[in-house]
Structure formats: structure tokens, C-alpha cells
Amino acid sequence: MKSFKQIVSTCLIVCITAAGFPLAAQARIVATEEITAPAQASTSRDTVNRFLARDDVRQAILGQGVSPQAAAERVAAMSDSEVAQLAGRIEQAPAGGDVLGILFTVFIVLLVTDIMGLTKVFPFTRSVR
Questions:
Q1: 19 belongs to a structural domain
Q2: In a domain, 81, yes or no
Q3: Neighbouring residues of 101: CB distance < 8 A, sequence distance ≥ 6
Q4: % of the chain at pLDDT higher than 70
Q5: For residue 33, is it within any domain?
Q6: Which pLDDT tens digit goes with each residue over 9-61?
Q7: How many domains does the chain have?
Q8: What whole-number distance in Å separates Cα of residue 126 and Cα of residue 129?
Q9: Average pLDDT, the chain
Q10: Is-contact 100 61, C-beta < 8 A?
Q11: pTM greater than the 0.90 cutoff
Q12: How far is the C-alpha of 49 from the C-alpha of 38, rounded, in Å?
């Protein structure tokens, strides 16, 4: 029992001594863009995913020889800035029109990821890896 009390008292002494040491703290001004960036990225991804879920877009993607699942995987692999740019183009497009431009953008993104060796969607590309 005496050794147990010694171990507990030694641990308490170390913990109380360590608690008294000053800890480093940092303070800085946080920009609004830093706070809202994750929410905007999520909104942009939702916009693109909703666009890809439309029946007419799915048919056009299939017409290009790309499966809708592969397109969704590519969107998930895109950076936040790329998704924001694509979502901006979707929002600027007239309702029911210019789907070809959006599909062309998705096609280019898929083509670039194929050439970089990240995916293998198109049989006519060769990876740089």
C-alpha cells in the first residue's frame, strides 16, 4: 500500500508542476474568407452534384462514353477551387441551355486526370506516369 501511495503522489507532483508551466498561445485576425471557404466549397460541390444528377446531363455524359459514377468520382477528386469554378459556370449557364459547355468542361477535366495518370476513363489516352 505504501508503494501505491508513493506512485500516486509522485504522479500528482509531476502533473501539478507541469500544469504550472506557461503555454504558448497565438492570436491573429481571421479573414471572413477563411471562415466561409469550407461552407462555400460544400455548396459548390452540392451544386455540381445536383447538376450531374439531372437526367439530361446523365444522358449527355453517357453519350460522351463516360459513366455517371466516374464523373461523380472526378468531381470528388477535384480541388475546391476547381469545383467552385465549375459551379460558377453552371450557375451562369442559361436554364436548359449550354449543357454542351458544361459537358465539355467535365470532359476536359476527365481527360486531364487521365493524362496525369490519376484515372483511366478514356482508352485513347496514355498516362505520363
A1: no
A2: yes
A3: 89, 93
A4: 92
A5: yes
A6: 999 999 888 888 887 878 888 888 777 777 777 888 888 888 888 888 888 88
A7: 1
A8: 9
A9: 81
A10: no
A11: no
A12: 16
In a domain, 16, yes or no: no
Report the length, in residues, of the chain: 129
| 104: containing domain | 29-115
- pLDDT (0 to 100) of residue 93: 65
Residue 22: Cβ within 10 Å count = 5
Kindly tell me the sign of the dihedral angle through the C-alpha atoms of 59, 65, 70, 72: negative
The string of DSSP letters for the chain reads -HHHHHHHHHHHHHHHHHHTS-------PPPHHHHHHHHHHHHHHHHHHHHHHSHHHHHHHHHTT--HHHHHHHHHHS-HHHHHHHHHHHHHSPTT--HHHHHHHHHHHHHHHHHTTS----TT-----
